[in-house]
Q: What sequence folds into this?
């Protein structure tokens, strides 16, 4: 067979991925408004006790924070100071040979309260500088419009994405940045891990759990508004940047049945539908799947739609599917199964897999499985825009950092990507998560490090902020140079 892809295609987009609230810092500089992410406080393991890690915040907690009754540390406010150090950081990405850099725009830098008519020029100017710097090195920006944050005002005053008015404000924000950066940015993503609206309603949709009657109902309504907003954004970009590519983004998980008991298999199918396919069915196929309509009926969930919503969803579908992939899960119909944690979902312990130090099950083969499943179902290009290992790193006295565990994790995942390409999957790029150490989304800690570049800062924001190349830095450089052939 001549027409088979046996390896990474020419022009494959290698790079790294970040989010504004996890790197930028400067949370109140140059006119930026408060964002929902600025309210998430760091809690050490001792402070947290047995409670699960959460990045969810209630209205009552926000009141306390705004009234200065909370003396906590808020790492997403200081990030890793990318706002002032972007030149140095981008130069390091260029040294690794990045073809693409995924970043998000902080909506509250452009519209500090979210509901203004006119944008904040200083906020727009900051991203101009970042894009210019990337261009200097021929690194393409891949921009997420909404990555786990929104202007805090929209959450407090409007109830977040549950309120339909937020659609127009988002589209106005999206059109503002499309017009401004139309010559600089050709790859866009609408919502990071759109599944988060359901699993983490505050983080994903700005919903304050203590201010709504039924969180699940509000979250599904919010998600509907995000679907419509995303589709309207596609409509706008087709006019403003006709040669742009715009994708949806999914936290992708493979969910195995624990046994061959048909009940477990059915349970895994249902969970995969609800955790993965629902979102892409709406955003790529363009309509609500019947299994979800059935779920709504059986669970008394009512989605309020406007008459034109269905045709908007149908007409403005996404160009590609982007996904994050960290782990697989197992589901069991038994009640006593031992549980493990994950980024958005938890599951049952898989005896065949090792776990990261944060209990995330490491499973490169499941990446191949999910790529195949997504491609079989939708036949649109796939882009892995997050993958990586959060680990504790140790910096030696001479400034070196040996992280063979990270290299091993990434190597095994890249090998499986290659297998998926051989299976026929159209994979266009790979941006590993956190190419430079950053603030963790789920735990707001600094010590959960993903980077090829070490940042000297602790969980409380102490440190020189100096950047150091880890062993994996040199390894990833070789991977990119050889277009994924040299993984040694
Ligand atoms: C994804 C998010 O869920 O996982 C990122 O899109 C996040 O923002 C990443 O950082 C890793 O999760 P964590 O909790 O280890 O930072």
A:
């Amino acid at each position: 067979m001549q027409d088979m892809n046996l390896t990474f295609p020419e022009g494959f987009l290698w790079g790294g991925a970040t989010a504004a609230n996890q790197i930028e810092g400067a949370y109140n500089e140059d006119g930026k408004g408060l964002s929902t992410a600025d309210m998430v406080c760091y809690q050490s393991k001792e402070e947290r006790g047995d409670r699960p890690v959460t990045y969810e915040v209630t209205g009552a907690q926000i009141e306390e924070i705004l009234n200065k009754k909370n003396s906590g540390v808020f790492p997403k406010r200081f990030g890793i100071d990318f706002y002032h150090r972007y030149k140095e950081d981008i130069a390091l990405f260029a040294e690794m040979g990045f073809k693409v850099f995924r970043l998000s725009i902080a909506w509250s830098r452009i519209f500090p309260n979210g509901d203004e008519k006119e944008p904040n020029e200083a906020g727009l100017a900051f991203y101009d500088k970042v894009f210019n710097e990337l261009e200097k090195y021929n690194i393409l920006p891949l921009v997420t419009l909404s990555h786990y944050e929104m202007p805090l005002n929209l959450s407090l005053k409007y109830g977040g994405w549950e309120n339909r008015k937020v659609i127009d404000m988002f589209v106005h924000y999206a059109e503002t940045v499309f017009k401004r950066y139309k010559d600089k940015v050709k790859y866009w993503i609408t919502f990071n891990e759109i599944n988060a609206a359901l699993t983490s309603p505050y983080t994903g949709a700005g919903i304050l759990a203590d201010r709504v009657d039924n969180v699940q109902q509000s979250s599904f309504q919010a998600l509907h508004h995000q679907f419509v907003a995303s589709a309207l954004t596609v409509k706008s970009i087709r006019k403003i940047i006709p040669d742009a590519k715009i994708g949806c983004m999914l936290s992708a998980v493979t969910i195995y049945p624990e046994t061959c008991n048909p009940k477990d298999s059915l349970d895994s199918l249902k969970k995969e539908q609800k955790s993965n396919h629902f979102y892409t069915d709406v955003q790529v196929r363009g309509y609500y799947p019947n299994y979800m309509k059935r779920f709504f009926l059986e669970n008394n969930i009512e989605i309020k739609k406007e008459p034109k919503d269905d045709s908007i969803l149908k007409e403005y579908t996404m160009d590609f599917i982007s996904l994050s992939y960290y782990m697989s899960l197992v589901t069991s119909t038994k009640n006593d199964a031992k549980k493990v944690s994950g980024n958005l979902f938890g599951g049952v312990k898989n005896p065949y897999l090792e776990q990261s130090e944060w209990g995330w099950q490491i499973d490169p083969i499941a990446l191949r499985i999910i790529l195949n499943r997504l491609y079989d179902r939708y036949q649109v290009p796939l882009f892995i825009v997050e993958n990586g290992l959060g680990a504790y790193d140790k910096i030696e006295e001479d400034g070196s950092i040996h992280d063979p565990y990270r290299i091993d994790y990434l190597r095994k995942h890249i090998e499986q990507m290659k297998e998926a390409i051989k299976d026929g999957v159209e994979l266009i790029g790979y941006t590993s998560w956190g190419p430079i150490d950053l603030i963790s989304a789920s735990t707001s800690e600094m010590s959960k490090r993903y980077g090829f570049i070490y940042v000297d800062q602790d969980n409380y924001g102490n440190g020189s902020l100096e950047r150091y190349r880890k062993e994996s830095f040199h390894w990833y450089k070789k991977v990119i140079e050889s277009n994924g052939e040299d993984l040694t």
Observations:
- The domain at 13-481 is CATH 3.20.20.80 (TIM Barrel).
- Residues 215-240 form the longest helix (26 residues).
